């Protein structure tokens, strides 16, 4: 059996709502930045949502949004276009 060897993580890449990279994400965490987007009824109606849904008691008018989702390379990750659309990467 091969003995366990320590490793070091020397790089990190990520994107989160409101943070284009790890440095911005860390600053957001330190500063308590809210990265959830909240929407008015009017904004949701403009997107085509039904009034019954938007006004339902359990409906949450919030979502985390990533920028440049249209740049997601589905084929690189082996994801079909249909699955990528359903995932909303």
List the helices and strands and how they pair.
Elements: H1 22-31, E1 37-38, H2 41-46, H3 51-54, E2 62-63, H4 81-87
Antiparallel strand pairs: 1-2
Description:
By secondary structure, this protein is mainly alpha-helical. The protein has four helices and two strands, in the order αβααβα. It is extended. It is 30% helix and 4% strand. A two-stranded antiparallel ribbon has the order 1-2. The model has no long low-confidence stretch (mean pLDDT 90). The protein has a domain at 36-87. The chain has helices spanning 22-31, 41-46, 51-54, 81-87, and strands at 37-38, 62-63.
By DSSP (H or I, 4+ residues per run), the number of helices equals: 4
Largest sheet: 2 strands, antiparallel
Radius of gyration: 19 Å
Instruction: Give the strand tally.
Output: 2
Anisotropy-based shape:
extended
The largest sheet has its strands arranged as 1-2
As a percent range, the share of strand residues is under 5%
SSE order, one letter for each helix or strand: HEHHEH
Distance between the termini: 40 Å
């Amino acid at each position: 059996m091969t003995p366990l060897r320590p490793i070091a993580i020397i790089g990190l890449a990520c994107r989160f709502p409101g943070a284009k990279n790890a440095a911005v994400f860390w600053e957001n965490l330190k500063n308590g930045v809210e990265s959830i987007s909240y929407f008015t009824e009017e904004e949701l109606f403009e997107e085509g949502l039904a009034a019954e849904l938007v006004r339902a008691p359990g409906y949450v008018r919030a979502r985390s949004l990533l920028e440049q989702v249209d740049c997601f390379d589905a084929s690189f990750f082996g994801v079909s276009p249909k699955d990528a659309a359903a995932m909303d990467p």
